[in-house]
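Hi R.,

Here's the chain you asked about this morning:
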Amino acid sequence: MMELVSGPTGVTLEAVQTTVQRTYNRAQVIRLLDLDERRLRTWERLKLMPTLETYCYQDLLALRSLRKLAEQGIRADRLQRTFKSIRERMQDVKNPLSELKLFLNGKRLNVQGAGYRLDPRTGQFLFDFETRSVTSLPAAHVAAAEESERRRLQAEAERLFHVALEAEQAHTPAREVMAMYESALRANPNLAPALVNIGTLYFNARCHRDAESYYARAVEADPNYPLAHFNLANLFDERGDRPGAMKHYLRALELNAGYADAHYNIALLYQGSGDRLRALRHWKTYLKLDPGSSWAQVAKRELRKLRDATIITGSRRA
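And the predicted structure, written out as tokens:
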């Protein structure tokens, strides 16, 4: 690892040692630091340095650091991206050149502050245990890095989930698909769609205990995810647990009143328990929501049966 100094530590500038209050004009700065005017204009254009009429001691240090970085072969546009990332992730850092150090970790450009090191591209901390303890990290920096890492992992989990979903739709063997979903869960253990899909793979394999475990984890990870409740209800229904099934079907409807399949299955449950009026209501709602599907024909048939039974019952009572 090679460290590139970009702060006051270890800096020796004979021309400014006598007083840090002195100011310098542009021509003096170019001469003192042996800068190229065109390079200085590039740094200003990329906002690595502000355009100034006069320069103070800290400005000289910042320019000296930029020159050192350029001598190491680090392009100005790469520094621009790094500074942009630093300012986004560490909002209390106003001037990365004077407040932080930059160092190369292999080919990656990292930054170092008091007791920590950071990859500005990902927001991940690379803790510097030799200088300070982890507890001494600035709270704002830690929070920003943790949030950045959380978002990165969420994005990676989403990507892996879609890879697994595409594989499943391409009829890849279930074991391989399940391993892909598990990869997504390693990035984000609370990714409810991945939990539900693994549960469904187990359900289709008649492994109901494993299916219930994943469906329950999905409900816990995201209590407001209708599909998790719906699939858990299907499992309970399959096992003959009608109260458990009804509970989660109704919860799915609370979360999504237009959930046609939930209306369909609730209608069947009510019809099976003899509650004709509630069954009629859910059959009608299902047909309004999904009138063109093949299941709509079944719903119409069941609706007719209920109406005929209601008419016959009414005639007997009369």
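The domain at 172-305 is CATH 1.25.40.10 (Serine Threonine Protein Phosphatase 5, Tetratricopeptide repeat).

Let me know if you need anything else.
M.
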